Amino acid sequence: MPTILLVRHGETHWNREKRIQGHGDSPLTLKGIEQAKAYGRTLAGLIGDVAGWRVIASPLPRCVQTAAILCEVAGLDFTTIAFEDRLKEISTGQWAGRLKAEMDPAELTGSGLDSWFFRCPGGETHAQVSARLSHWLAERVGGEKLVVVGHGVSGRILRGLHAKINPDEAPCGESPQDVVFRLRAGRIERIACI
Q: Which end of the chain is more exposed for a tag (fewer CB within 10 A), N or C?
């Protein structure tokens, strides 16, 4: 079975502002940079010898920045990172860049498969995000050792697919920026960063 060490990008300016990101982007805050360093320290302890480990990241700049920092701290080679479009965050369409505080609260309701982020005008549905992540996960082979840098919503869905969690429950999971999730053999282990 493959081993996947999954992390979410560090805090961005838009995260701090409570602005909807989706495929939009903003750089890491100083706190986000420190979170990326903590990922690197934690990964160094989990990985040990870096031989055989590969890093795969969403190509969105907040993940690229997080991956660069954690690689430097963990002793992984940034120049060998593979960037994978299927690991991108859910597209929030016309809502990307909007402040949540400026929106009608009724638009930001729902949970599970009825969560607001699956209903953004021009955005992706749960089925679309799930399909691209399922295809990526199906390509994983036994013995692979991967560090994956991803996002909040897509990370919850990926964890749900890996552990075969009810699709209505997986989007309700947490998406912290100070935890490494170890995905192996259908299980998910939550590891706090140091």
A: C
